[in-house]
Amino acid sequence: MITHFFETAGFIPHGHCYLWQTNLVGLHILSDGLIALAYYSIPIMLIYFVRQRQDIPFQKVFFLFCAFIIACGTTHIMEIWTLWFPTYWLSGGLKAITALISIYTASELVLLIPSALALPSPAQLIVANQALEKEINERKRAENERKQIEVALRNSEEQFRNAFENASIGKAIVSLDGHWIKVNPALCQILGYSSEELLALTFQDITHPDDLDGDLSYAHQLLAGIISTYQMEKRYFHKEGHIIWILLNGSLVQDEQGNPLHFIAQMQEITAKKEAQKALELQSLIIHNMAGGVCLIKASDLTIVYTNPKFNAMFGYADGELAGQSVGVINYVDTEVTPDETVEDVVVKLARDGEAQYEVYNKKKDGTLFWCRVHTSRFEHPEYGTVYVAVQEDVTELKQAEQALQSTTNRLNFLLNYSPVVIFGCQPYGNYAATFMSKNIKDVLGYESIDFLEDSDFWVHNLHPDDLERVVNGLDNLFVNDFYFHEYRLRRSDGVYRWILCQLRLIRDPAGRPVEMLGYLIDINDRKQAELELQQAKEAAETANRAKSMFLSNMSHELRTPLNAILGFTQLMSYDPVLTPELQQDLAIVNRSGTHLLALINDILDLSKIETGKMTLSLSDFDLKSLLISIEEMLQIKSQLKGLKLIFEIDPNLPQFVHTDEHKLYQVLVNLLGNAIKFTNQGSVTLRVRSEHSDQTSCHLYFEIEDTGVGIAPTEIESLFKAFVQAEAGHKLNQGTGLGLAISQRFVQLMGSQIRVQSTLNQGSIFYFELGVKLPQAVCLASELLKQRVMGIAPGQATYRILVVEDIEENRRLLVKLLTSVGFEVREATQGVEALSLWESWSPHLIWMDLRMPIMDGYTATKRIREHPHGKETVIIALTASAFEEDREKVLMAGCDDFMSKPFQECLVFDKLAQYLGVEYIYTVVGKDSQKLSVDSLSPEDLAVMSSQWLEEMYQAAYYVDPEAMNELIQQIPASKSTLSSSLIDSVHNFKYDQIMELIRPLLPNPV
Questions:
Q1: By CB neighbour count within 10 A (0-12 exposed, 13-18 middle, 19+ buried), where does 430 fall?
Q2: DSSP assignment letter at 883
Q3: Beta strands in 310-446 (DSSP E)
Q4: Which end of the chain has fewer CB atoms surrounding its CB within 10 Å, N or C?
Q5: Band (13; pLDDT cuts 50, 70, 90)
Q6: Please, what's the b/e burial string for 113-122 (b: 16 or more CB within 10 A of its CB; e: otherwise)?
């Protein structure tokens, strides 16, 4: 279709119509060209006019008219074109277009005529023109103002651009969805991104997740109009990956209608500030909780602005109490250096070095002085400016320890250099070369310490040849036990060998490898000489001790042998019914005197045994309740004479029979109760006994003796149980030997316990102890039998043959008489050979064998009997006057079945016979009438009838235990005072010297 418009075939050019006459063709070309030029110029000018006069109405018509003219001009151009090119279809089409445009323009003009007619008239135009001129002037003025505003705006924009681009803080314009629209270099530097990189991101992309919600919340509040600006601290991720802290100020930019355009963000990096703040918080936390006391001091006026709890506690102040006070309040006021001077010295050092370390004598709130070690540093504080931070540590104990260490060091240096002990170190291998030698080696051996250090074999060369091998080989023990000591001889510098004691210790590293040998040397030559002398003295002492033991043994034998006869025959004689009461009383006096002498001998022997460590227990089953009753009966008279109450509080559950050392328990209780009565003038003496059963075979007995006597001073209790030592009360009474408590304590210790004391001076004392005892499993003899006397052998039994072997006629006769009196068949021998002969010919059932006899003693005779095939059939009980318990073991080892000491009680003789032969007896009950005192109770008033001289002499005679003098003085008492005489005679016979002294003492002019 388009190509059809450009077809020329079949047509002739238009120039042929003009017959190609040059003039005619030229005329048409010129006229058509000029018309086309005019047609084209008119629209251009119209369009220019319209563009310049936008206010002209009906501009559409102008544009249509321009299109019509251009179309007309184009038809003229086609007239020229068709002269040569017959494109008449194209030319016709252009004319058709021109026609359409003309018709459309005409129609528009028709429609426009009413509007055109409505245009103002010239007069109206003049008025309008004037108004327009006025408006134009106003517009010019407005234009000028607008231009000024534009200039100001450009200046403002330039200033904003300069401020935005050159700001030291980060600035950015951020879209409503979070994209960076514009960023300044400072922000790029803060975040590490280029501007191009940031513009490709959103702020959400680089915000820390923990801060994103808070930032978006502020943004929503801006958009909602709730806030107009906000500020927050948030974290961004730097391009390099680390976190940076930002102080963000955000605001919203809106258009004239209030529509939000974008966000403006200003950002300051505060990473360093946050780290400093964090460090400051950490420092504050550390300062608050650190072990040392911390004080913050303002440098400008040296006042305290902060103290941590440790500092307050150290100085004794409440929290915050020191704030605002001068630092001098905590410094000690010295007579030489004031606190101000001390502080000034520290300030000078702080100004010079920035820190200071020193020790100061501080003062607590209560005035207590103590040493502190202080480290003070200078800092810049955001609130107080320059401050001094003082960290104080209480070093009072450390100072004391340093002083003690210095004293110890001084002492150690003194010991190392001046003491007789030489300290040394040496290698733990090779020839044990010395690594250290204290200088005092010169004082001990005359050598310099360098001699040992330079010559590793120096000590070996000076060893005594006889000690060399022993010493060197002995060092192997050190590597086994890490400790070793030996004695050897070293040659002194003057050539003399001296004995040396060497103590070594092996030092090992953590892996256990030997690193060094440490030790000391000491000259023991004098000690060796003393040891030699001591050995000689020891041998002499042992010889003397053996002689002493022999003497005591002989003394015991020589004293106890006649006592055996005295006590035995008096007991037998007392059974004679024909004796008058006066003779019975005389026999009782003899028996008591012998018993008293025996007790003294036993005390001496017990003390000897204790000193030599030979005291042992003699365990047996006995009736505990009967023992306590006998003690009560024995002491009741003594306590009544002093007007005291003797109280026995016995546990109802106390076992009747126990297994322990009866004799020692008896002695202990009698001694403690006797002392209590002796040192109590009024009140009471109480014995409490209770038991706690552990099981069926044993129990614990608890004994407590309480008195209301004079008491014991605390300073005397420690020495109370020493031999021959008495408390002050004992010295005042001038009674006793000071052995009783010492022996009693040793007895109780042997039985596994200890006597303890509680005492208050002038109020009384309590002595108490406990004993663990066994409970007998066999049925014991009823206690009533102990109060019966054997009258004869029960009928229906065999005739028992008893052989008595005793060289002392009195003792032999006593035992023979005792046995024959009840029906035993008895024969006697005076020594061992005779005994062997009788044993072989007579075959006795039981032999009472004395041990000390001439020709053949009892030990040998017993061994000979036991060697015989039938020798074991005969019971042999040893008789000896020895009181040493070790003799019992010797006797039993010799072959005897049992052991009985002299003097013996007849009941024990019969008990042994019953035990070994099964003899049964006929008994008679010994009457136990409540004995009425043979003397009336005396009082000082009864003795007041006697002269002061007589009283003084009687007191002295009683003090020195002189019965002869006392009896002579009693004879001087008037016959009318027979009761007084008989009472005093009874007291002398019963050794009641202490009672006599107590009665006389108040009557003396100067009572002791």
A1: exposed
A2: -
A3: 355-363, 369-381, 385-394, 421-426, 434-437
A4: N
A5: confident
A6: eeeeeeeeee
Per-residue model confidence as pLDDT tens digits over 421-474 = 888 888 888 878 888 888 888 888 889 889 888 888 888 889 999 988 888 888
- The alpha-carbon radius of gyration of the chain (Å, integer) is 69
pLDDT computed for residue 783 by the predictor: 43
Structure tokens at 634: 């024995």
- Which residues neighbour 338 within 8 Å (Cβ) at sequence distance 6 or greater? none
719, 693 in Cβ contact below 8 A? no
Which H or E run contains 125?
helix 122-166
Q: Kindly state the DSSP code that residue 683 receives in the 8-state scheme.
A: S
SS3 of 447-465: the string is CCHHHHHHCCCHHHHCECH
54 vs 46, 57, 768, 830, CA distance in Å?
A: 12, 8, 138, 181
CA 440, 462, 466: angle at the middle one, nearest 5?
130
Tell whether omega for the bond before 903 is within 30 degrees of 0, i.e. cis: yes
Query: The sheet that has 898-901: what strands, in order across it?
Result: 825-829, 801-805, 846-850, 875-880, 898-901
User: pLDDT tens across 700-746, in order?
Assistant: 999 999 999 988 888 887 778 776 555 555 445 445 445 678 888 88
Whether the Cβ atoms of residue 946 and residue 957 lie closer than 8 Å to each other = no
pLDDT for 793: 83
Q: Which residue has the tokens 């528009």?
A: 108
Predicted pLDDT of residue 782: 41
Q: How far apart are CA 990 and CA 751, in angstroms?
A: 32
Q: Binning pLDDT at 50, 70 and 90, where does residue 49 land?
A: confident
The pairing of beta strand 514-523 with beta strand 898-901: unpaired
Rounded to an integer, the average pLDDT of 400-415 is 77
Pull the structure tokens for residue 316.
């004794």
Diameter of the chain measured on Cα atoms: 223
Place of tokens 């238009």: 14
Decide if 742 contacts 810 (C-beta within 8 A).
no
E strands within 238-302? 243-254, 260-269, 293-298
Q: Percent of the chain beyond pLDDT 70?
A: 81
Closest CA to 304 of 280, 284, 327, 271: 327
Is the separation of the CB atoms in 391 and 283 below 8 Å? Answer: no
pLDDT at 733: 47
d(CA 586, CA 166): 141
Give just the sign of the alpha carbon dihedral 260, 266, 271, 274: negative
Q: Which alpha helices (H) appear in 304-395, and where do they start and end? A: 309-315, 339-353
pTM score > 0.70 for this model?
A: no
How far is it, in rounded angstroms, from Cα 95 to Cα 74? 9
Q: Which residues contact 130 (CB under 8 A, 6 or more apart)?
A: none
- Looking at per-residue confidence, does 200 or 533 come out higher? 200
**Could you tell me the two tokens for 952?**
């003084």
- pLDDT mean across residues, the chain: 80
Tell me how far CA of residue 14 lies from CA of 6, 85, 959, in angstroms.
Answer: 15, 8, 195
Contacts of 476 (CB under 8 A, 6+ apart): none
Q: Is 263 helix (H, G, I), strand (E, B) or coil?
A: strand
Per the DSSP assignment, residues forming a β-bridge with 756 are: 768
Closest C-alpha to 485, from 460, 535, 522, 536: 522
Question: Using CA of residue 184, residue 186, residue 190, residue 196, what is the dihedral sign?
Answer: positive
DSSP character at residue 326: B
Q: Give the per-residue pLDDT at 929.
A: 40
Distance CA 813, CA 571 (A): 14
Tokens matching residue 566: 């005295």
Nearest Cα neighbor of 378 from 360, 344, 353, 358 is: 353
Q: Residues of 150-167 as b/e, b for ≥16 C-beta within 10 angstroms?
A: eeeeeeeeeeeeeebeee
Q: pLDDT confidence of 339, banded at 50, 70, 90?
A: low
